[in-house]
Structure formats: C-alpha cells, structure tokens
Amino acid sequence: REAESFKEQGNAYYAKKDYNEAYNYYTKAIDTCPNNASYYGNRAATLMMLGRFREALGDAQQSVRLDDSFVRGHLREGKCHLSLGNAMAASRCFQRVLELDHKNSQAQQELKNATTVLEYEKIAEVDFEKRDFRKVVFCMDRALEFAPACHRFKILKAECLALLGRYPEAQSVA
C-alpha cells in the first residue's frame, strides 16, 4: 500500500509535468517494492521526459525483465534505444510489442521510425565512402529527428561539416 501511495504521488507530479518530483516518488515506490514492473516503467517515462535516455533504458529493461508482457515497458525500451541511435534494438522491442498486441498503433509507427533511421544510416555510410559529405549531413539531420540523443550521429555530422569547411557549425554540433 505504501509503494502504491508513492506511485500515485509520482503520477500526480508527472501529470503536472514536475518530472523531478515524479522521479523521486517513483524511486520511493521502487525502494519499497522493487519487484513491480510498472514502477520501473513509470520512472523510465519520467527519465525520458528529462532527456535521461540511458538511465531510462535501464529502468525500461528492468520493467520487462520483471514482466515480459508489459507492453508499455517494451515501448519505452524501444523509444530509449531509438533516441540513443540503436535502431536495430529498438525494432526488436517494437516487434515484441506487436507480438503482444498486434494492433498497437504506437509500436507500428515507432517500428517505421526505426526502419527510417536504419535506412538513413545505410545511405550515410555509402555517401561517406563516396565523399558526398553534404548528403551525409542531410541523412544525419533526418536520423537525429528520431534519435536526438545519439552521439554517434552527431559526431559523424560534425566530422562531415568540418570536411565541408563549415567549421563553426561543426564546432557547434561537436
């Protein structure tokens, strides 16, 4: 009951967009009852709102370890992987959601997003070899729309901007 009360307080702060306080209450819920998948899922959602995708990924993964049928946990894990630029792992998570709920429109859309990122990565790789750095920058900009926390994409973009002689932009991205 105490853990559930902490979760409800966390939900109230989350609804008010006070994600730091929500995080604190979800953490108290987890400390009180460490085997509840939804508490980890809620904290993962909060961390995602704070832009802390690596930490959120850990909580999302823990939520599905505790309950493999926890759809929101798989969705959050996938969104974290995608935000961090790991589109292949994200795809696996969204496919798992579709195994559990084949009509899940969010998973269908996110799977398309992950596929798009993979396509931009492949195009960028080919164009980098061709030394078409302008096209690589374009591809990385598109990929970063879905993977805003991906350091690898940002570094590649910065490198290509530098190779194009666009040093201030390269420095800004780096």
Automatic annotation (TrEMBL):
PROSITE patterns recorded: TPR, TPR_REGION
Which SMART domains is this protein grouped with? TPR
Q: Which Pfam families match?
A: TPR_11
Keywords per UniProt: TPR repeat
TPR repeat intervals: 3-36
Which InterPro entries does this one have?
SRC_co-chaperone, TPR-like_helical_dom_sf, TPR_rpt
SUPFAM superfamilies associated with the record: TPR-like
Specify the protein name.
Answer: DNJC7 protein
What organism does this protein naturally occur in?
Bucco capensis
